[in-house]
Amino acid sequence: MFRTAQETEECLPNKGLSPKIAHLVAERARLTVAITSDAVDREEEIPLGATKIGGYPDLPPSMAWPIRPPYPKGEDVREEHLKSAGNIPKISWMSEEERRNHRSEALELADGAMREAPLGFIAQIDLAAVAAVADLGADFPKEGRLLLFYDVKQQPWGFRLGDEVRARLIFDETPVSALMRKSAPEDIAETRMDPLRCNLAAALICESPYSRTFDNFEDNDGDLLLEWSDDLELPNGSHRVGGYPTQIQNDMALECVLLTRGIDLSHGSELVFDSDVERERQSWVFLVQIASDGNNAMMWGDSGMLYLWIHRDDLKMRRFVKARLILQCP
């Protein structure tokens, strides 16, 4: 991890990167607000409206718990779960009891995709506390809270058209004195994760070596950048607001472009990467990253992360309902 852009530019050539590439990496570095978490004995230890992960959300009394409708492509989701239910051979490493449980859970998920269901609460971000730590740009709100709800049971990746119903990002500016801590509906009470107190700190983050920005590097520079990618990451900042995400798989801004153009990515998709696509890609802003967290057994896929992106026009207009959630894991 580097503390300043100048330090980045000075150190990377010592690791074999060309001065030109070191300058590009340093030039594109951005401020982020890194979030570290700690377990608490009681959720009451976390003040109303404060940044936290897990537990119960702090909402105005009149706000209903977010409910997702049946998945628009629920038949496809159901078919995938049914296939999974019948895809455990007897030679599997699973015990017979584990195979029965897997089938039962898959069948439950298959039916659940066809019905409406409450979303699980994931995290809330105190935007005033974020702004007090770092300036993330004029478009980022300086007051209020972001509250993330997600279909914890289904855990869609976000590749399929219609998957946007799987998550809800709420922007709330209710005064803290008027908030109340709301319990989850009974039918998702078991998905509640223990509350984690959060600490915020400003840090410099570099763009992922997997980004399209570095696609045309010469092999040596590209390989070296990957080799030193850990130095570009934050050692204790897997959760974060703004800056760059920890990219594990594909370019997420590009995925957002394709999905908004009506291209389903559940079976892969190719697109000519022209100047029009690049302009649109640059219009997508990374908002928040919530990682798997051992402090409360939060797990996304196989030790993956949830990422929130929004088009800059929607960010400026505070249309957070249009934010897109993507899940990636190793």
Descriptive notes:
This is DUF1963 domain-containing protein. There is one protein chain. 26% of the residues lie in helices and 22% in strands. It has 330 residues and is an alpha+beta fold. It has a single domain, classed as Hypothetical protein YwqG fold. The strands form 3 sheets. The chain has a 10-stranded antiparallel β-sheet. The chain has a two-stranded antiparallel ribbon with strand order 3-9. A two-stranded antiparallel sheet has the order 4-5.
Structural class: alpha+beta
Globally, the shape reads globular
Which value, in Å, is the CA radius of gyration?
Answer: 21 Å
Question: Which percent range describes the beta-strand content?
Answer: 15-25%
InterPro entries: DUF1963, YwqG-like_sf
Protein name: DUF1963 domain-containing protein
Organism: Microvirga makkahensis
Short description:
This protein has ten helices and 14 strands.
Which helices and strands appear, and what pairs or packs with what?
Layout: H1 5-11, H2 19-27, E1 30-39, E2 52-53, E3 58-59, E4 67-68, H3 74-85, H4 96-112, E5 117-118, E6 120-126, H5 127-133, E7 145-150, E8 167-172, E9 180-181, E10 196-205, H6 219-227, H7 229-232, E11 239-241, H8 252-260, H9 275-282, E12 284-291, E13 305-311, H10 312-316, E14 324-328
Antiparallel strand pairs: 1-10, 1-11, 2-6, 2-10, 3-9, 4-5, 6-7, 7-8, 11-12, 12-13, 13-14
Helix pairs in contact: 1-2, 3-4, 8-9
Q: What attributes does this structure have?
A:
ten-stranded antiparallel β-sheet; 10 helices; alpha+beta; two-stranded antiparallel ribbon; Hypothetical protein YwqG fold; 330 residues; DUF1963 domain-containing protein; YwqG-like_sf; DUF1963
